[in-house]
Amino acid sequence: MRRFAFVVHPLRFDDFARKYPVTQYLPPKLVEWAFKQVGPVKTGHVTGVRSKTGEELEGWLIGLPLTPEILLNAPYEWVLKKLIKTTQMAEELGAEIVGLGAFTKIAGDRGITLSQRIGIPVTTGNSYTTATAVEGTLSAATRMQMDLGRVQATVIGATGSIGRAATWLMAEHVRHLTLVARTPQHLEKLQSELHAQYPGVEVDWTTNIAEAVRAADIVVAVSSATGVIVEPGDLKPGAVVTDVARPRNLSRVVMDRRNDVLVLDGGVIQVPGETADMGFDFGFPPKMVEACMAETMILALDGRLENYTLGAQIEVAKVREIHRLADKHGFSLAGFRRFERAIDDIEIERIRLAARSASA
């Protein structure tokens, strides 16, 4: 029996009220202050996961009651102490490896210093998140009858951890790429590297998100922004948009107002095991988790007890490797989903026809 732990935290302030209803009647600043004084708490127990190899897995979800704003804006040494306490709890529970969820993997140096101060390996899960985001996006584009050799693709957050690796993978399949991020110097450097490796791919960059997505057939959104950055009017009819970011980069209004755009949740994974129970309501059907958590589970099942995905850059070789290990153990994309709801081929065809009508 292999064992793992995964760190979770509230993505929005109203998540406090879902767990502790009384907080909805209190001033937000008071609630945040109070929860900053609270240590890690055991939030869920994962059971019943069974690999295709026969190996079994048990795990624990450990919660830090800190919002993204606190994790990103508080002094990192303070955040680090919280994370060290969290991983110490994981060790005491018997975890052999720990994964960082959501903004706990963005704070500070993305797990590097933490890995040097704890007794078990750590991963951000970003390699498998990248692999499945690109896999799902390209599969959806094919379902929408796009010619991948002619499409224009945009990656929002292209110089970030997931965005950079996703850009390299996308460059193998599309003819035109637009890179979007905040810092021109980083964008220029990435553009130069891509030109050297893929001279046949046209690579542009911009810091203007609306401009970048307006002409895009494919959009992969992986920005670490804490609010919505893509609105309904920004998107081209027929566009395939994979929103990997949490909190989301896309407004839910996109789905309500744009029946001609295919919006996908990035990296929702089906876990192997007939009786698999994730021990927590992530908003998904049973036996489904986000790819970052799945990466931690895969590494545990495979006995790869090592610091796997850390820091600001992801090795493309590791993205390919974790995808192979996922297949080995029976993890797979959970079909197509948008805003936590499954969509089928009939709905995709309806979107494609609506896009054709809007473009006529």
Report on the structure:
With 360 residues, the chain is α/β, with parallel strands linked by helices. It folds into two domains: 2-127 and 269-333, no CATH class; 130-267 and 336-359, 3-Layer(aba) Sandwich (Rossmann fold), CATH 3.40.50.720. It is 38% helix and 20% strand. It contains 13 helices and 16 strands. It has a six-stranded parallel beta sheet with strand order 8-7-6-9-10-11. A five-stranded mixed beta sheet has the order 2-3-1-4-5, with helices on both faces. It has a three-stranded antiparallel beta sheet with strand order 13-12-14. Strand 7, helix 8 (184-197) and strand 8 (202-206) form a beta-alpha-beta unit. The protein is globular and about 60 Å long. The termini are far apart. The model has no long low-confidence stretch (mean pLDDT 90).
Secondary-structure element string: EHHEEHHEHEHEHEHEHEEHEEEHHEEEH
Percent of residues in β-strands:
15-25%
Q: Give the termini separation.
A: 58 Å
* Low-confidence segments: none
The secondary-structure class comes to alpha/beta
Shape: globular
Radius of gyration: 20 Å
Count the strands?
A: 16
| Oligomeric form | single chain
Short account of what is shown:
With 360 residues, this protein is α/β, with parallel strands linked by helices.
Can you lay out the helices and strands and say which pair or pack?
Layout: E1 2-8, H1 14-19, H2 28-36, E2 41-50, E3 56-63, H3 68-73, H4 76-93, E4 98-100, H5 112-117, E5 122-123, H6 126-143, E6 152-156, H7 161-170, E7 176-180, H8 184-197, E8 202-206, H9 209-214, E9 218-221, E10 240-243, H10 253-257, E11 262-265, E12 268-270, E13 288-290, H11 291-301, H12 316-329, E14 332-333, E15 336-338, E16 341-343, H13 345-359
